[in-house]
Amino acid sequence: MEPTPEQPAAAAAPGEAPVSKKGAKKAEAKAKKEALKAQRAAELAAQAAAVTLEDDPAKDSYGDRKDTTSAFSPDAQAVEIRELDDSHIGKTVVVRAWLQNSRVQSAKMGFVELRKGGNWNIQGVVMASDNAPVVSRRMVKWITSINPESYIAVEATVKQPLEPVKSCRVSGLELHITKCYVLAPAPAMLGMTMGVASQPIVNFSDEKAPADDAEAAPKTETTVPAASMLTHLDNIAMHKRAPVQQAIADIRIEVKRFFRSYLEARRFKEFEPPCLIGAASEGGGNVFRLAYFGEEAFLAQSPQFYKQFEIAGGRERVFSISPVFRAENSNTPRHMTEFTGLDLEMEIKESYTEVLTTLEGVLLSIFRGLQERCAEEIETVRSVYHSEPLLLPEPGKEVRLTFAEAQKLLREEGPAEFANVRDDEDMSTPQEKALGEVVRTKYKTDFYVIDKFPETARPFYAKIDDSGATVGDGVKVTNAFDFFIRGQEVLSGGQRINDPAELEERIRAKGISPDSAGIKEYVTTFRQVGVPPHGGGGIGLDRVVAWFLALPSVHLAACYPRTPKRLMP
Ligand code: ATP
């Protein structure tokens, strides 16, 4: 029925019959009265709360604070959770950390878990007490209702728990909290909880799945759901806070440190190759272009030419740790559009095997160093991403196969589908992985070298083997090699051509004009001076970390993975 002007339906709730004008007025008055009543009740509650807080003898010992100046006892010692040991028992300390979770035991007692520095966590106990320092029930309630991942500061007495706290890394101590301030609160609802952030990522696609949220994601062994890489990256702070990511990031730092220290001890000198370059120098199409003062510039696809300029410039042995950019639309767990290259280049005295031996030494020192010095971090990663330890060769028993030997091994001992692989064609990724399995079974190592690649599989600057050796249908082999771990490439290297005429001939043979931009300047350098024989290699830092830990994707090893579809955060 249509309402008449005298019978407005304005006050009718959906599904209810319209009310009369008089009825509407009455309802309006009633609503007003109720709103006033609610307002009054809220004011009274606030007053009551103020009175209670005012009356709370512990009121200065807890609350939100931006500034903790004079908040803590002068004799309380500021410590990090990782520093706490038995020498602190009985002492008063101040700990700044994230509140990981909390639990109410009773109105008088609660527990919190504090975390900092990766996976260093400790249990905190808050117990109501009338004796100084007073802890009120209200304080217990307030502390146990702080939102997880808030940054807090507590003053506490360090005590030994009745039993070791199994859930915490610092299991033999606990903090009896007497003061607690929230310095930076987290929201009540986190975009991704620590529980979810600590589950293995199962989906690395850059495309948003129709139901891409933690609830819809596949359940893992525990009851906590796993999230996709997209969700992790959209919650970058929580992604990074997860102990597994902290451990990966720490291992990454160690890889760089071992790389640098091994080389510095052998008279290698560091230099910085440019990222901005004036030509797509290596001739490939996989280069990013950008506007440069009305001209075009490119992002470096590798420091190759610059390492060689250093050798030409008399630096003898050089290395660099630098970003490398690849404009490849490769959406695989092995590829990123930006990664970190660990590169070296050195003069050769007698044979290119000097380079191979140096690179083998670098990688073995990195892997052995990690196994010795990062056992805890490795264990943290393994607790999320299960893996077998990387099998390394006994000293003196390093495995070096020629490309032809590797293909023969694959044909004879690999899966049937690879029974016809050729000696003059580059290996596919499945072939490389299958070979990794064969080598592991046969030689008991996950780390090996494949040397003497056919020239068809190498760039123009690769030096061809002087012996004239060929594979397949007469394809010449090069003094160039790749290194593998767990069947995946982590390094490419070899001897470079240092004779300008030979270089020019190889450039032409690859269908590139020696006069093209970047190439011309490169070849000219070899004409300007006499450049000693030299060689080197490029290691992908992200891949070394990822495959050492047997992670499901190289994206997990990068600080901020860049892919064809993702530039944020
Ligand atoms: P691939 O064939 O796997 O794409 P590549 O032969 O192009 O690699 P090189 O140009 O020889 O690799 O680079 C040297 C090293 O850099 C590689 O052994 C690898 O560890 C790393 N690397 C190369 N491309 C990428 C990439 N897109 N993302 C991450 N690391 C990479």
Fold and architecture overview:
With 569 residues, the chain is α+β, with helices and mostly antiparallel strands. The protein contains 14 helices and 20 strands. Strand 4 and strand 5 form a beta hairpin. Helix 6 crosses helix 8, helix 6 runs antiparallel to helix 9 and helix 10 crosses helix 11. It is elongated, with a radius of gyration of 33 Å. 36% of the residues are buried. The N terminus is likely disordered. The site of adenosine-5'-triphosphate has 15 residues, from strand 19, strand 20 and helix 14. Keywords: Aminoacyl-tRNA synthetase, ATP-binding, Cytoplasm, Ligase, Nucleotide-binding, Protein biosynthesis. One of its GO terms (molecular function) is aspartate-tRNA ligase activity. It is an enzyme of class 6 (ligase). InterPro entries: Aa-tRNA-synt_II, aa-tRNA-synth_II, aa-tRNA-synth_II/BPL/LPL, Asp-tRNA_synthase_2, Asp/Asn-tRNA-synth_IIb, NA-bd_OB-fold. It catalyses: tRNA(Asp) + L-aspartate + ATP = L-aspartyl-tRNA(Asp) + AMP + diphosphate.
Heteromolecules bound: adenosine-5'-triphosphate
Structural class: alpha+beta
Adjacency order of strands in the biggest sheet = 8-12-13-20-19-18-15-14
Which parts are unreliable, with pLDDT below 50 for 5 consecutive residues or more?
1-19
Helix tally equals 14
How far from one another are the termini?
57 Å
How much strand content do the residues show? 15-25%
* General form: elongated
Q: What does the main sheet amount to?
A: 8 strands, mixed
Rg over alpha carbons: 33 Å
The count of β-strands is 20
